[in-house]
Amino acid sequence: MDPIFIDSRLVAATVYGDLARVSREGETELTAGVNRIAWPDLPAEIDPADVQVETDHGRVRSVETEPVPVPSAATEEHPSDQLQADLHRWVAAQEALRSEIELLDHVLPPRDGASAPLRPDLFMQGLNAIIERRRSALAELRAAAAAHAETARALERALAQNRDRTVTHRKTLMVSVDAPSTVRARLRVTYASGWATWRPLYHLQLSPGADQVEIVRYGDVWQDTGEDWSQVSLRLSTAEPQIGLRLPKVKPWVLKVGASLDDDMKALYRNAAPRPPQPAPATGALEPPPPAPQAIASPTPTHEVTGSFTPSDDFDEYATQFDEDGVFAEATSPGLAASRALPAAAIGAIDANPMSPSPLSAPVSTSAPPPAGPDRSRLVREPRPREASGGIDVELNVARPFDANSGADRHRVQLGRRTYPLELWYVLRPGLRDHAFGQAEIINEDADPILAGPTSLFVGNAFHGHTRLATTPGRGKLTLDLGAETGIKCARRSETQVRREGLLTKDEVHAVEVTVEIESYLATPVKLHVQDQVPVATTTQVRVKLMNTSPADAELDDATGLLSFSTVVSPHSKTELSFVYEISAPVGFRLSQGLADEVLP
After folding, report:
1. In what order do the strands lie in the sheet with 543-550?
2. Cβ-based burial of 469 (10 A; exposed 0-12, middle 13-18, buried ≥19)
3. What span, in angstroms and rounded, lies between the C-alpha atoms of 573 and 567?
4. What is the pLDDT of residue 503?
5. Cα dist. 473→357, 445, 470, 478 in Å?
6. Residue 14 pLDDT more than 70?
7. Pairing between strand 33-43 and 4-5?
């Protein structure tokens, strides 16, 4: 039986994280009995198992595909030979670096804790040089592995182009339909097609002095399916149908302990010959808080000898830390965290998997975007729709018919707009910046969540800057960051007095008084939240106590040390806040400081 070739058009598309499901519709005359319907010129990756065929008359009996050989255009030279040579070169480079690392591992001291017969300081200098070369070799090995992987992908693409000159790149879908009688029937076929994806995007529109904000939702759509979309009904989904449907199994979680090179280095350091005594630092008032981050140099992080040991190329640095006592300095800016050395435990992790790539800020699509696409960096960096929705399956309908030619270009569609009432306030963190930041809170009145995504902020007709919206469930609260407000300024001062207390056991007490002066240049009264911080003790030998605050209703978070004031600042006025806290530690103990990894909201 000769097939009936049907004329169809693409009428609908649902775009997921890295693929699309598209639907085609067509009409044809069916006769009584079995009819073979041919849908020509469809993408080559169509899998009959994923194809869904519907008809308003009759019953679908079978669905299968037939390849259609299409000769390629004029042939041209492809750099396969050069890529093959580059691939062999990167393989040889990796083998050489692995051999060098293995040789260095034999030169390093044994792991049985045996002491070196040489002078410890000279031995440590040589050991540091070997460790530095090993670290460099590991970095070169990772770079060579990355170049090897990229060359392999390029070679695969070049070979695929050579194959595409003669092999099939389109298919014909063959559908058997059993019709009860002669009738004109409408048929619809739905199939998966890649590559396609989308990302959420927002515009925030604020009117000066207004108590509401308008949020305009957009979706940026990319499709490189090989088919042009014209006047299709478009849906954007956060689901990922390609994920397996079976419940994953739980495997045993096993912990192991093993000796490491870092432990041996620490033992060697403890045995090192002490340096001549250094003059003790003067005691007295604490250092003032460091200036704003843009004006501060990255200081050298300090480490106690009895604590974690961080490898370094400079033995003198450790000798100085070993002999000198530190003086507590109040930390009120992220300057101390600006220069962080690699933790010692990280060397073991690198050794265990030297080929592991650096983690990305967001997961990469399983079906990667076109490498030559102008928006590839954003697609790799931005979370996929599934992550942006917090794992919730949401489907958004585009109101108007959608056009998008196949390719790497972006197509932006508006998903809706809504005006929300908002409550506006300002947040001031004097230890970090000398000006305030605007914030507002809205309630997501829609049943669908607001997906995380980049946002452009407009105040009146002026562009104000870029921010981000966080994932917010339906009926949930969303806090908007509205940027800097330089009309609210502050100045922070701290003074410290040191005294000794106790009869039998002496304690050294550092009493720190902090004063914050605030001035508003705005023409309207504003609600202001001032957030400062006091240190948090991680040992019982150090005690931190908040003595008093002014105003007295300040709230202290004991876990983070965040101290919060709430006040209303009148137009063109000044106000002052202050607080006093004390730090007590036994005399002779060293106080060290640093900033934890936790970030305050």
Report:
1. 543-550, 573-586, 507-520, 477-501, 435-443, 423-428, 526-533, 562-569, 555-556
2. buried
3. 13
4. 73
5. 34, 9, 10, 9
6. yes
7. parallel
Local confidence band at 236 (pLDDT 50, 70, 90 cut-offs): very high
Q: Which domains does the chain have, with CATH numbers?
A: 261-352 (no CATH), 483-586 (2.60.40)
pLDDT, tens only, 136-163:
888 888 888 888 888 888 877 777 666 5
| Alpha-carbon separation of residue 27 from 2, 4, 10 (angstroms) | 17, 11, 13
Average pLDDT over residues 371-378: 73
Is the CB of residue 388 less than 8 Å from the CB of residue 471?
Answer: yes
The stretch 26-32 carries a mean pLDDT of 91
Q: Cβ–Cβ contacts within 10 Å for residue 193, how many?
A: 21
SS (H, E, C) 206-218: ECCCCCEEEEEEE
**Separation CA 130–CA 100 (nearest Å):** 11
pLDDT at 245 over 90: no
Tokens 């519709």, residue located: 25
- Which of 305, 232, 234 has its CA nearest to residue 266? 305
Taking the C-alpha atoms of residue 189 and residue 8, their distance in angstroms, rounded to an integer, is: 10
What's the rounded Cα separation, in Å, for the pair 242 and 290? Answer: 52
* Residue partners of 310: CB distance under 8 A and separation at least 6: 301, 303, 341, 342, 343, 344
The model's pLDDT over 457-477, given as tens digits with 9 standing for 90+, comes to 998 888 888 888 888 888 888
CA 173 to CA 206: how far, in whole Å?
52
CA-CA distances (angstroms) from residue 493 to 249, 288, 488, 545? 57, 8, 17, 19
- Cβ atoms of 393 and 493 within 8 Å: the answer is no
Under 8 Å CB-to-CB from 202, ≥6 apart: which residues?
215, 216, 217, 218, 453, 454, 455, 456, 469
Model confidence band, residue 199 (pLDDT cutoffs 50, 70, 90): very high
Q: What percent of the chain has pLDDT over 90?
A: 28
Task: State how beta strands 453-459 and 196-206 pair.
Answer: parallel
Q: Which two tokens stand for residue 9?
A: 């058009």
Rounded to a whole number of angstroms, the CA Rg of the chain reads 33
**Residue 128: HSE in the Cβ half-sphere, 13 Å Cα cutoff:** 18
**Per-residue confidence band for 345, with pLDDT thresholds at 50, 70 and 90:** very low
Question: Residue 372: which pLDDT band, with cuts at 50, 70 and 90?
Answer: low
Residue carrying structure tokens 């902020």: 457
Task: Return phi, psi of residue 499, to 5°.
Answer: -140, 165
Structure tokens at 8: 């169809």
Give, to the nearest 10 degrees, the angle between helix 80-107 and helix 120-163.
160
Percent of the chain predicted with pLDDT > 70: 72
